[in-house]
């Protein structure tokens, strides 16, 4: 039986002394999520959203003692356990998200640039997220101290996800034997970008494709797929090669389930300028160039369908919240709000437009929030 978001959030312990509680923790969490859907960016915005729609919140059985002030909201939310909050979010997404076989799950990190605190010597928060590309929803997230520490954050995140039948795509930072093994143990496939952090592997794959292309690819077993986009004075040609010939790789058996190597080439013509970029990959997938292209292309969609949306529609990079674990908690709240807005099909507007509509019309906001109010 599917459990509600509020049911999953019940695993979070209220850090306050019971005798001093005026507002239920669950009410404050739900208010924060509702306000984030309705355009809130910080604690004061959350209070104002609640005050504006106090009658509606009371009708939902919340805030019998009135809407809390922004400082109370900030204090309570910043005291919550980020680990418990993330675990509850991931468990809820498992309950409500049906992943089809072959679903591409893109794993990538993003830094919340204004979350740093120089006086407290606190570095900016870096979050690694798992994004279901076909559904356009965040499946989970894990905190990383910095971009360089994603190697430890990625396994912790993958451990909580249902990977069976899915294709996990990760950039070169996550190209690690232990991560590949973990994905296979979860009965998932992987497409991992390879760069100089795996120098011998990278050089071997580059040499294979350079040698194969030097002979016109006549004698090298491979699959090929090509796409062309034209518009705004720009032509982009995307080419994909994939081969199951692993004979030139150093100890390929050390990579769990490794079956193919791949190369993606982007050729861009804009005016008189021509640029070519090549990227290299290892994968457990068979040599199907179209499937390989789909996985590679979808991975980079996380940049404009998640990271860009968080910055442009939620102004995440401008958020200066630093108190306690508030930045991390609010990061998860944004993910919940984004998922709810993206799943709403009653409005054809983009995420920013939907947030504005939810701020103006509590009835529309209620439709968006319906999945978490049951």
Description:
This protein is of the alpha+beta class. It has helices at residues 5-9, 25-37, 43-52, 54-59, 70-79, 82-96, 150-158, 177-185, 199-214, 289-312, 326-343, 351-360, 362-373; strands at 104-112, 125-132, 137-144, 167-170, 189-194, 223-231, 234-243, 260-270, 273-283. It has a 9-stranded mixed β-sheet, sandwiched between helices. It is elongated. The model has no long low-confidence stretch (mean pLDDT 91).
SSE arrangement:
Elements: H1 5-9, H2 25-37, H3 43-52, H4 54-59, H5 70-79, H6 82-96, E1 104-112, E2 125-132, E3 137-144, H7 150-158, E4 167-170, H8 177-185, E5 189-194, H9 199-214, E6 223-231, E7 234-243, E8 260-270, E9 273-283, H10 289-312, H11 326-343, H12 351-360, H13 362-373
Helix pairs in contact: 2-3, 2-11, 3-5, 5-11, 6-11, 7-8, 12-13
Considering the chains and any ligands shown, give keywords for the structure:
elongated; Transposase Inhibitor Protein From Tn5, Chain A, domain 1; alpha+beta; 374 residues; nine-stranded mixed beta sheet; 13 helices; 20% strand; 2 domains; 9 strands
How is this structure best summarized?
It contains 13 helices and nine strands. It has 374 residues and is α+β, with helices and mostly antiparallel strands.
Question: What is the makeup of the main sheet?
Answer: 9 strands, mixed
**Gyration radius over CA:** 23 Å
| Helical content class | 40-55%
The count of DSSP E runs of length 2 or more, i.e. the number of strands, is 9
Instruction: Count the DSSP helices.
Output: 13
Q: Quote the distance from N terminus to C terminus.
A: 13 Å
Average pLDDT for all residues: 91
- Unreliably modeled segments: none
- The CATH architecture of the largest domain: Alpha-Beta Complex
CATH top level assignment of the largest domain = Alpha Beta
Structural class: alpha+beta
CATH fold group of the largest domain: Transposase Inhibitor Protein From Tn5, Chain A, domain 1
Give the strand content. 15-25%
